[in-house]
# Entry
Amino acid sequence: DGVESTNVDVYDAIFGDGSDLMDIDIPDESALSASETTLWKTFQHKVAELTLQSCNVCSERDFGLSLRDGKCAFCRSDKGDPVFKFSAENNAHPRIDRPLSLQNLTEMEEMLISRVLPMMQVRYTRG
# Structure
């Protein structure tokens, strides 16, 4: 009772106890100019508006699929006779099952950990 014990770290004499690291002077003014701040807020607003869409037939996921009745443009043009080309019924379902630890990620977390976001433009030419 009444005895205070403290653990002595032998490395505190060499490296310090870290209390000096907490004295950080944070500047009052922003590092961004007024125009940069406006651009940053506009960027944040545009990112917040992005929604990842998914086709109900082929399970393609992208930001601008132009879905109608839950189908992307490719699946709308596919007549589905007797089944849709890239559907689960045709055993051509491209969706990969994710591990449980990766199933509840937000869209931003998915973008941060993804290695690649493939984007390409295909142009058809005659001749």
